[in-house]
Amino acid sequence: MGLLDRLIGNDRKLAATKYAGRESASDRAARVRQHQHRARGIQEAAQQGQAWEDADRQRERTRGRR
């Protein structure tokens, strides 16, 4: 048993008791990455849709002037 074990105690037992039921840091990081990836895709799709809508309105305006 090392000095850290004497000071902290059994870290596995501590993790199982004190932090039971909590999301791990790696799980949280993966969840945040996945959310950001999806949000970025949604934002890009919205921007493409808006660009198409703007171009379509511009086409309609130029057709009306002829």
What would you say this structure looks like, in words?
The chain is 80% helix and 0% strand. It contains three helices and no strands. The N and C termini lie far apart (89 Å). The longest helix has 40 residues, at 25-64. The chain is rod-shaped, with a radius of gyration of 27 Å. The chain has helices at 3-8, 11-17, 25-64. With 66 residues, the protein is mainly α.
Question: How do you describe this structure in short?
Answer:
This protein is an all-alpha fold and 66 residues long.
**H/E topology pattern:** HHH
**Global geometry:** rod-shaped
Mean pLDDT: 82
What percentage of residues falls in helices of 4 or more residues?
A: over 70%
Number of DSSP-assigned strands:
0
Query: Stretches where pLDDT falls below 50 for ≥5 residues?
Result: none
- Give the end-to-end Cα distance, rounded to a whole number of Å: 89 Å
Strand content: under 5%
Major sheet description:
none
What's the Cα radius of gyration?
27 Å
Structural class: mainly alpha
Instruction: Count up the helices.
Output: 3
Core attributes:
single chain; 66 residues; mainly alpha; 0% strand; rod-shaped
Topology:
Blueprint (H helix, E strand, L loop, with lengths): L2 H6 L2 H7 L7 H40 L2
